[in-house]
Amino acid sequence: YCKKNTNILNKRTLSIYFILGVCLYLLFLVVVDLIFPFILVGDYYQSIELIRILCISLVIEPFAIILLQHITFNSLVKEYTLSINIVLIIQVFLYFTLVPQYGIKGLIFVNLAMVFIRALMNTLLVRNSYLNKFKIG
Asked: pTM of the prediction?
């Protein structure tokens, strides 16, 4: 049994998730700086910088979680499936265009870009559900 909760996207909840994301990001940066130099030695040491870049996604992921929760609670599965397919097409396109040219840096960029694009698509999906629900716009 899952009770519909359409008020999960209030300012307090979004603020908490933003703070959580920033804290995760900062915590992981500390872990990367303190522990990873001992784990990643030799040729792998240079990957620490790439890991730091990927950590940026930790700020956005909590938003994606709360947006996905809203999508699930409001039965927007068909719309979500369409948005995921669009995101996957963009992702495949970016992989084929950026990875051959930039290698691992292109891969990192694509993965980071996909976090932002998924969050944007979910935001648009939730926004449209509110506009349709309240006949705004």
From this structure: 0.71
